Every structure is written in structure tokens, then in C-alpha cells.
């Protein structure tokens, strides 16, 4: 497939310039068919649906694993990015006197669990932006021999800045710490290889750039971290049940299966599979190149208008998010509402106006956004 063929799969694009992939993915025609097929099975043959549930589960897990360069048994399917972030924290030993380093865009699900009982003694160190990016030397300055983890958003939801994960992993491991990555704004938009980049933990959700469903998430743990006992009790899909006469013995399965605690969101998996398949049919190199072309074009056009773009222009430092600093929170809100009325879907927060072009968008969508913004600024 190519981006133009993918575009034809999205009904919303017939009437709107939808550029809010950093929030929620619109349905494709394939997704609608998958949901209809699921509901038909659940209505007319639920037993067969139950019997084949593991097959769909394995297919979705394998598709995601291939997408990020992981082995299938290093992936657990969760219900959200936050669930994966919490699993990562559960698998890290909070030794006395230890500290964790975060960046300025740390999401609550990455930072807040460190404040809960049992880990609230761990010092939390936050590294600020400088020149709208987080510099590795600033992260290094915050680390010491007591640092047990570095936790970052691969791509900032605020500024659109992205890390070089390979370099960050080298720095993190130099201090004997582990690297935890929130990939909610990068998985499905950028090429990721967790093995080559030597990432310890990665969490993301399906509902954004992966073009899947809310209620489905993915958690990657490098194999070296999967020999620990799971932090929560598992269901029958997570354990071996040995049944000698008169007693029972439960043993956690090897790999990430031991982290599963119950039946997954079957409807969500059905709605997530088509998006992953589309990304595979395109190839992530094609997806990344297209996303970077659109975000670069958008930034250059905004700069020509004299607007303050907080997203870095260099390709290596950005992904699909493009953020513009507006005059105020109210100004960003008003601009977003005006664009919505013009058939352009964007996003605003804390004085930022943001657009998130994905592989199904094109330069015509960017131009429609720019035209709408120009009209708003004349009001």
C-alpha cells in the first residue's frame, strides 16, 4: 500500500481534514468491517468467538511486536499506556536511597506511581526543557550512581520533541539504570527497534498513531527483566496449572505472558488489528518518511507566517506533532474551535495549538489547516 491508498480507507477525510492522531484515531472502513464481524459472531456464535479469542490475541501481539522489533513473548497486552507504565515500575526494585529521572513532559502515569506507598521513598528528579528540547547532558547531570531509572516520553505531547533513544539508553545504562519509554506519541508514527536501541521497558496504547482502539495497550519488557515473579496474580493464560492428585501447583509462564491477568478486550483487539495490518502493509519506513514530510512542511509554512513554532525543525528531533505557541490559553481554544468549524480537527492545551498529521493525511490537509488559521488570525 501507499499513503494515498490508505487515505481512501478513512471516511472522515471525505469531509474533514482530520489531524488529531495524537488524540484518537478515526475508524477505517476495515475497522468498521472488523467491528461488524465481531458483533455478528458474538450475537450468533459466541462459542466460536470464545474458542478463537487466543488466535486474535496472538495475531495482534505479533503484529505489534514486529512493528517495534521485539519478540512476541516480550509483549504483554494491557488496557492502556498507564497500565504498561505501572508494570514497568512494578518490575524495578526501589532500593533505599535511589532516585528516578524524568523529563519535563513526563505523563502522570509514568511519574505518579513512584509516589505511592512502597516507592514514595524514591527521589524524583525532573529535567527541564532548554531551547524547547531536553538535552542529554542535562539528563546526565541529574543522574548518579543511585539512579535506578530514566523515564521519558519518546515524543513530547506538548512540544513534539523526540529523543534519540539509542543515545539515551547508552547514558542510562552507563549508570546501571533502566530506560522506561512512553511511546504513545511515537509508536505507529516512527520506526522503533527496541532491541537495537536497547530499551528496557516501553508502554503505549493503540488508540492514537497505531490507528486502533481505546482500551487496548501494549507493554514491552526486555527479556532480561521477565524472570521476576509477576506483580499481580494471573489468570489461566498466565500460569501453568499442575494438578497432581490431591493438590494444585501454579507456575507463572515464561516471558510476558505471566503479566496477563485476565481476558483481554476482545472487541478492542478486533478494532485494533486492522490499523496494525495497515502499518505493516505500508512499512514503517514509508510511514515515518510521510509523517516527517508533513510535519516539516507544516512547520516551514508556519514559520513563514512569523508564528512561534515550539516543535523542533530538524527531522531527528521531531515526529508527527506540530505545536504552535498562541497568545494565551483562550487564544488557543478559540483558534481550535474556529478550525473545527472550518472542518479541520486539531487540538489545544495550555496556550498551545497542535496538529498531528499522520500517514493518511496529505499536504492538502495541511494547506486547509493553514488557510483556516490565516482566517482566524485576521479576526
Question: How would you describe what is shown here?
Answer:
The radius of gyration is 22 Å and the shape is globular. The chain is an alpha/beta fold. Helix 2 (29-44) runs antiparallel to helix 9. The protein is built from twelve helices and 15 strands. The chain has two domains: 3-19 and 283-378, Aspartate Aminotransferase, domain 1 (Alpha-Beta Complex); 32-280, Aspartate Aminotransferase, domain 2, CATH 3.40.640.10. Strands 2-8-7-6-5-3-4 form a seven-stranded mixed β-sheet, sandwiched between helices. Strand 9 and strand 10 form a beta hairpin.
Number of domains: 2
Strand content: 15-25%
The amount of helix comes to 25-40%
Biggest sheet character: 7 strands, mixed
Q: What is the fold-level CATH name, i.e. the topology of the largest domain?
A: Aspartate Aminotransferase, domain 2
Q: Provide the structure class.
A: alpha/beta
Q: Give the C-alpha Rg.
A: 22 Å
In CATH, the architecture of the largest domain is 3-Layer(aba) Sandwich
Number of helices: 12
- The global form is globular
Instruction: Sketch the topology as an H/E string, one letter per element.
Output: HEHHHEHEHEHEHEEEEEHHEEHEEEH
Supply the key terms.
379 residues; alpha/beta; Aspartate Aminotransferase, domain 1; Aspartate Aminotransferase, domain 2; 2 domains; seven-stranded mixed sheet; four-stranded antiparallel sheet; 37% helix
Helix-strand blueprint:
Blueprint: H1 3-7, E1 17-18, H2 29-44, H3 46-51, H4 53-68, E2 75-78, H5 81-90, E3 99-103, H6 108-111, E4 123-127, H7 136-142, E5 147-153, H8 165-174, E6 178-182, E7 201-205, E8 217-221, E9 239-242, E10 249-252, H9 266-282, H10 284-304, E11 308-309, E12 322-325, H11 329-341, E13 344-345, E14 347-349, E15 352-355, H12 363-378
Parallel strand pairs: 1-13, 3-4, 3-5, 5-6, 6-7
Antiparallel strand pairs: 2-8, 7-8, 9-10, 11-12, 12-15, 14-15
Helix pairs in contact: 2-9, 4-9, 10-12
Amino acid at each position: 500500500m501507499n499513503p494515498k491508498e490508505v487515505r481512501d480507507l478513512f471516511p472522515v477525510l471525505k469531509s474533514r481534514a482530520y489531524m488529531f492522531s495524537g488524540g484518537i484515531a478515526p475508524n477505517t472502513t476495515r475497522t468498521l468491517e472488523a467491528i461488524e464481524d465481531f458483533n455478528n459472531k458474538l450475537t450468533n456464535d459466541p462459542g466460536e468467538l470464545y474458542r478463537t479469542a487466543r488466535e486474535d490475541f496472538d495475531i495482534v501481539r505479533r503484529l505489534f511486536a514486529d512493528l517495534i522489533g521485539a519478540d512476541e513473548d516480550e509483549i504483554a497486552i494491557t488496557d492502556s499506556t498507564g497500565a504498561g507504565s505501572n508494570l514497568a515500575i512494578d518490575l524495578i526494585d526501589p532500593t533505599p536511597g535511589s532516585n528516578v529521572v524524568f523529563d519535563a513532559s513526563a505523563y502522570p502515569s509514568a511519574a505518579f506511581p513512584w509516589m505511592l506507598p512502597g516507592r514514595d521513598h524514591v527521589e524524583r528528579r525532573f529535567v527541564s526543557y532548554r531551547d524547547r528540547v531536553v538535552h542529554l547532558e542535562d539528563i546526565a547531570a541529574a543522574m548518579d550512581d543511585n539512579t535506578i531509572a530514566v523515564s521519558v516520553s519518546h515524543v513530547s505531547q506538548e512540544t513534539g520533541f523526540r529523543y534519540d533513544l539509542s543515545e539515551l539508553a547508552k547514558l542510562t545504562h552507563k549508570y546501571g539504570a533502566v530506560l522506561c519509554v512512553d511511546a504513545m506519541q511515537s509508536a505507529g508514527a516512527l520506526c522503533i527497534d527496541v532491541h537495537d536501541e536497547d530499551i528496557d521497558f516501553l508502554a503505549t496504547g493503540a488508540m492514537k498513531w497505531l490507528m486502533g482502539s481505546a482500551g487496548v495497550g501494549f507493554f514491552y519488557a526486555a527479556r532480561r527483566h521477565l524472570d521476576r515473579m509477576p506483580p499481580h496474580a494471573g489468570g489461566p493464560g498466565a500460569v501453568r496449572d499442575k494438578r497432581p492428585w490431591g493438590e494444585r501447583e501454579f507456575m507463572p509462564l515464561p516471558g510476558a505472558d505471566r503479566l496477563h491477568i485476565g481476558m483481554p478486550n476482545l472487541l478492542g483487539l478486533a478494532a485494533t488489528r486492522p490499523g496494525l495490518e495497515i502499518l505493516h502493509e505500508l512499512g514503517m519506513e514509508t510511514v515515518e518518511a510521510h509523517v516527517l514530510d508533513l510535519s516539516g512542511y507544516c512547520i516551514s509554512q508556519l514559520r513563514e507566517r512569523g508564528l512561534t513554532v515550539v516543535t523542533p525543525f530538524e527531522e531527528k528531533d521531531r515526529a508527527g506533532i506540530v505545536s504552535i505557541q498562541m497568545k494565551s490559553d483562550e487564544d488557543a481554544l478559540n483558534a481550535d474551535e474556529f478550525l473545527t468549524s472550518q472542518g479541520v480537527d486539531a487540538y489545544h492545551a495550555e496556550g498551545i495549538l497542535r496538529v498531528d498529521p499522520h500517514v493518511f493525511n496529505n499536504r492538502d490537509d495541511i494547506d486547509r489547516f493553514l488557510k483556516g488559521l490565516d482566517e482566524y488570525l485576521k479576526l
